[in-house]
Every structure is written in C-alpha cells, then in structure tokens.
Amino acid sequence: MISKRFVAKRLLLLGPVLFGVATVVFGILHLSPGDPAIAIAGDRASQEFIDQVRRDLGLDDPLWQQYLRFLRDTATLEFGQSYQVRRGTDVSAILADRLPITIELAILGQIAGLLFGLPLGILSAVKKDTLTDHFSRIGALTGISIPIYWSGPLLILLFAQILGVLPTSGRIGSSHFIDSRTGFILVDTLLAGDMAAFQSAVRHLFMPVVVLGVYSMAFISRMMRSSMLEVVRQDYMRTARAKGQGAKTTIMKHGLRNAFIPVITIIGIQFGSMLGGTVLTETVFEINGIGTLLVSAINQSDYPVVQATVLVFAFMYTLVNLFVDITYSILDPRIEQ
Amino acid sequence: MSTETKSTDVERGITERIRASPFLTELLSNRIAVIGLSIIAGMVLVAVYARVAYDLGAIVATQFGTNPTEAAPSAAFWFGTDGQARDIFPRVLYGAWYALKFGTATVLASTVLGIAAGIVAAYYGDLTDNVIMRTMDVLLSFPSLLLALALVTVFPESLGLWRAVAALTLVYTPRFARVVRGAALKVLEDEYIEATRALGATDPRLLIRHVLPNCLAPITVQSTLNYGLAIIDIAALSFLGFGASPGDPSWGMMLAEGVERGLFSGSWWWSFFPGLFLALTVLGFNLLGDGMRDALDPRMRDAVD
User: Fold this and answer.
1) Which domains does chain B have, with CATH numbers?
2) Is A145 in contact with B146 (Cβ distance < 8 A)?
C-alpha cells in the first residue's frame, strides 16, 4: 500500500531543498571571481561597452534584487542565453539537445551496474567466507578504486586499438543520419527503423556504459551482500528450509525479494556518483552530453550555462532520490516514520 | 517486564563494548584490512622516497634533446617517456607524494569542519541543529563531483591543486557532520555526560574531552573511506582541467595529458602507469576502510560468527 501521507511529506520537502540548491548555486556564481560582463563583451572591449553590458544584465542592481530575479527565472526555467558555448542560443534549448544524451547514459550505466552488482553480491553472500566471496568482495572494491578516466582509456586501448572492434568516441558512426525525435539515440534509431544505425549506436555506447556499470557495481554488490546475509538469518528462511524446500528455491523465492529492498536505497545515494561519472565518461569518450557542456562552460566562463547545468544535475539527483524513497515506502511500509 | 528489557540492554551494551575494545587486534586479523594497510604503507614509502630523491623542477621541465619523445618502456625508461620527452617513472613516483599530501589535506580539513558542525549541532540542538543540518542537507543534494566542479570556480586558478582541496573539503564536510552528529547524539544520552555537566564542566571542555573521544570510531572509518574518494576526486578535477597545472607530476594531470595526446598516437604507457598507481592507492584505502567497518560494526561481526 502506498502511504499518501509519506508521499505528500516527501513532496513538500522537495520545495525547500530545491530552494536551498538554487541559493547555493546563486552564491557560488556570485563568489566566482570572473566578471560575466567581461565574459560577454570580450577581453578587448572598451570600458563603456562593458559597463553597458553590466547594466543590461542587471549586475548593477542590489544583490537581493538579483537574487529574487534569479529565483524567479529558475522557477520558470528561464536560464537566459549562452555567452560563449553557443553564443546567443537559449540555455534551455541547449539543455533540451544535450540532456537526453546524459540521461540515456546514466540509465544504461545504472542498469549495467545492477546487472553486474546484484549477481556478484548474491554469490558473495551465498558462498560467504569462501574463496569466491573474497574474490568478489575484492573485485567489487577494485571496481570503485579504478577511476573512470583510467578504466575508459584501458577499454579504448583494448577494444579499439588492440582488437580494433569498437569505436572510441561519439555516439554513432558518421555515415548514419538520424532525426533526433526523443534525443535518446537507441530509441531514435529504432523509431527510424534503421537497424544499422541502431547497431552503430550500441557499439558506441558499449564502452561508456561498461565503465559506468563497473563503477556502480561495487556499491550495489556490497549492499546486496550484507542485506542478503541479514535476510538469510531470518526465521522465515529457516522455516522455509525446515518445511523441506531446497536451498536454491528458498534463496530465490524468499531471500532475493527481501534482500533487494535495502539495495534500492543505495541506488538513490549512489546515483550521485553515477552523475559525476557521466561527466568523466563523456569527457573520455567525447560524448556531447551536459557533462562535457558543464566543463566547457566553466572553462569559458559561460555563467548562465554553468548555473543551469549544475541546477539540472542537482534536480535529477533529488528527483531520483525522491522516487527511490517512495518506492521504498511502497515495498516496505514500516518505513513511514 | 521493563526492568527485564533494561537489563538485557545493559548486558548487550557491555558485551558489545568488550567485543569492540580490541579493535586493533580485530583489524589486524582482518586479511582485507591488512592488505589495504600494506598497500598504503608501500605508497607512503614511494612518496617519501620520491620527495627526497627527485628534484621537482627537474621532473617538471621538458627534456627535449636529452630524452627521446614518447619512447616505449625500456631498461633506460621503465615507464617510457611522455610527449615532452620527460621520463615518466620518477613523475609517477612523485605523484604518490602529491596524492597523499593533497588527499591528507582534504580529509583532515573536512574531518575537522565536520566534527565542529556535527558536535555543535548535536549538543545545542533545536534551531542551531536545524540550521546546520539543513545546510548540510542542501549540500548533500548535489552530486559530489558536480558540486566540486562548481565550487572550484570560486577559488583563483593560481591556487592550483589547493583549489581542488578547498572545493572538495566543502563537498565532504556534510558527510562527516552527519556521522559525527549521529554518534554525538548517542554519546550525549549517556549518564556520565550528565555527571560531568553536574560537576561544572564548561561546554567546550565537555565536548572536546568527553563527547569527541567517544565518537572517534565512526569518524575514523569515515575518514579512511573518504581518503580514497578524495584522492580519486582530486585527480578527477585535475583530469577535467581544474586542479594541477600542465606538467605537474600529479596522476590526474598525467592521465589528462596521456589520454588526450598519448592514447591515440599509441603511447599507452603515458596514461597507463599514473592510472595504475592511482587505482592501487585508492584500493589500499578502500580495503582498509572496508576492513575497519567490519571490525567495528558488531552486526557484521555477528553475521560472520
């Protein structure tokens, strides 16, 4: 049963959190030593022109006025225009282009993490204290210890340079032209019915997704292991065994379902490092998502883009956690308080 | 009925305390922790050796004419040379010094700030607690690397790697604050705190002499686990171009240069060795942290019994 009170409470909390997040972003941008007026006008602009730009942007207004304007613009998703990255384009248009790319990557990475992590954690728990357990635990810890900006290049070395079977960068081969309808390349190629293009997209996504999956595998398998160990000791497991059920059936039927619930919470928390991971993955594999957008915007002092991108990242993270909390409360009604 | 539950609670408390006291013995009998500790000890030796044996200026300077450019690993250049004809081996060793130095600074700073925020929040409660912890919550609603990227812009570029340290300190502080607050709240319920207060101890004395020492265990685990993360994140910021300056013998910067310029010209060694050392160091801290958690968490120990 879904508890309406719990959901309502969590939704109500969303407001203050997003308000806080926006305030932090405003604070950070105002503390930055760079001058947006100079960033727009260019280094060699005359002082009059820079002053003009500053007045136009409202940077001469008192801080509280700028803050209120910022909050209003943020609430209405009005992020202004890009100064540098794509000069004169609405930031929301740039985000609309690039956000799906990052979302697709993060979702696939998360799925890969679950596919690698859950079996590893279960295996570890079932074979507790055997060599298999030690190996998979150390394997999982190695997974979080290898930075994406090293595992990515290693995969490129192996699959692209030594074996020559996978492309190193981008999202799709240059010979394919696909209309961007949803922005998700796998969906778009399928909608276009172009199987060759779909294959190309899959081949391009393979390495980035594996790299992200290995990284999140570690968190998931560790949680799955300890949660599984906890469940195995429960009375209902003993009862199931006592009534003559085989070990495998007991674990599959009763163990997994109950052990999986706590793992869901770790997915929410770990999604933050997944989003951080997309920035690094996009950089290594030259994918034009909002991660690479943020990096180039910071490098070029493109403040509206920086501000919007950071807000969007924080917003996604908050939403995923909200979703996770609600799912958890449905699966485990005890959590209400 | 109620007295019965109470006595079992007390008994459990006592057995837990007895079992938790030989923490070091427990830790040293944990094979995973010992492997981690050995790796870290090895890296510390490498770092100190590099710091003493090499001149920083010499390993940063380009070596055109002296060394071949982008030479593969050989007897003369164990890890090969990079695009500036620099010998990669001493640079990778020196990277250990960089990683441990800046990693330690980050962990120390965020631990101290986190302890201050967490203990103050737990002790004063009410409004103070709310203001501090809600601020921490907001900081925690950012994915950590992204908050670090945004914060890095606040500090002047001339700070170099200290810029990454400053940004990551602010990013990690909330985690410590949460752990410390939780532990401190538990300690504050104990009767000896009441007794100390009755004896007239001042707030700072009470907090530093009595509350803090009893929160050290969870803080230590958090610090160890965060150490690996700090090293990986500092390198990540350098990799993305916000930290070390070009030419610096930091692993992140070497990886950035090696991936961008070496990988596609076939000079795999340029990024391979810095990455290997970085991963090994982080693995050391993660193994130790994991072992520590096992040794400290009585629930995990029960599961093993």
Assistant:
1) 24-304 (1.10.3720.10)
2) no
